[in-house]
Design goal:
By secondary structure, this protein is mainly alpha-helical. It has one domain: ACP-like (Non-ribosomal Peptide Synthetase Peptidyl Carrier Protein, Chain A, Orthogonal Bundle), CATH 1.10.1200.10. Helices cover 54% and strands 0% of the residues. It contains 6 helices and no strands. The radius of gyration is 14 Å and the shape is globular. It starts with a helix and ends in a 13-residue tail after the last helix.
Length: 114
């Protein structure tokens, strides 16, 4: 069976995939709605504390996101945390990251029904 353009278009660009995965992990750990995590959302306002930062960093690494405890604790907003992860993945090669991690992790965001 050949790959069609509709199959190729089902995979989002790396920046969207990274933001979605990070948003999904934070939402799951902090028990906040996914749409409540905007770029300007202060991490402290959604409940990030030392214990949750440890859990977030561990789950992010398990999901293929280069993120440490110090990153979570030392970053003020969701957008800055997202940018940090994006920058590290771009430095490592975003296409390789997508191939290795997009569909092969335990924290895949739910499929869009649209």
């Amino acid at each position: 069976m050949s790959t069609t353009s509709s199959e190729d278009s089902s995979q989002p660009p790396p920046s969207v995939a990274i933001a979605g995965r990070l948003r999904y992990i934070l939402s799951s750990v902090l028990l906040v709605p996914v749409d409540g995590l905007k770029p300007d959302t202060p991490l402290s306002s959604v409940g990030v504390d030392p214990m949750s930062a440890f859990l977030l960093a561990g789950l992010a690494v398990k999901a293929g996101l280069p993120l440490s405890y110090a990153d979570v604790i030392g970053t003020a907003t969701f957008g800055k945390l997202e940018a940090l992860v994006q920058q590290r993945i771009e430095a490592a090669d975003a296409d390789v990251w997508m191939e290795e991690h997009y569909n092969s992790h335990p924290f895949a965001p739910p499929e869009s029904s649209s």
